[in-house]
Amino acid sequence: MKKKILIGLGALLLLFIIWSVYGLFFATPVSPPASVTYNEAGLEITIDYSQPSKKGRKIFGEESEGALQPYGKYWRLGANAATEISFNKDVTFGGKSVEAGTYRMYAVPGPESFEITLNSETDVFMGAFEPDYDLDVLTIEVPVQKPAAPVETFTIGFSAKENGANINFSWDQSMFQVPVAIQE
User: Fold this and answer.
1) Are residues 117 and 131 in the same domain?
2) Which Pfam families does the annotation name (predicted)?
């Protein structure tokens, strides 16, 4: 009898391991990974993030309204793993100096503006967990604008500007941008 129970438990454990490996390495993620790179005039910026979709949900708003991402709360600027940004040169990020390197990037949304923070804690597997705030490098505040039409999938992109680029973020009824320029 013990042998049958042990065989049954072993089979269940094996099925769980197979299911976990499949989920981690083979299943298509609900929020697929994305990477965008800006590379002009010697400045290279790369952002690695995941792209959640609206799927009929209220994205930004008050917690009492059932918003997916409530105002005033940490947001990893995507889904799954923490969003990371890399600069190949010293730059100004929203007007503040930052050294070349890789940083964790997160936000705290609000109805009129978002706080965007760069943090030196990188290679974080699960970005759902809040960062070590003592490792924050800088925080900026950017105004929120409303796009012409709702944006279904969270998207980060670039637009060129003199001596750098604007990083453009858009999702649902919100869009904002962060100017980045090479430090002189």
Assistant:
1) yes
2) DUF2911 (PF11138)
Q: Any idea which residue has 């009492």 for tokens?
A: 64
Sign of CA dihedral 128, 134, 138, 141: positive
Strand order in the sheet with 43-50: 33-40, 43-50, 83-87, 101-109, 113-119, 136-143
Q: Is the pLDDT of residue 14 over 90?
A: no
Beta bridge partners of 178: 167
CA angle (150 as vertex; 104, 145 as ends), nearest 5: 65
Q: What single-letter DSSP state applies at residue 6?
A: H
| Residues 81 and 91 grouped into a single domain | yes
Closest CA to 67 of 146, 177, 172: 172
Do the bridges between strand 60-61 and strand 69-70 make them parallel or antiparallel, or are there none, so unpaired?
parallel
DSSP codes of every residue in 95-128: TEEE-SEEEEEEEEE-SSEEEEEEES----S-TT
pTM score of the predicted model: 0.84
Place of tokens 């800006």: 38
- Quick: pLDDT tens for 36-71: 999 999 999 999 999 999 999 999 999 999 999 999
Q: Give the span between the Cα atoms of 180 and 123, in whole angstroms.
A: 23
Whether residue 96 is found in the same domain as residue 155? yes
Q: Any alpha helices (H) in the chain, and if so which ranges?
A: 2-25
Contact 45, 180 (CB under 8 A): yes
One domain, residues 9 and 52: no
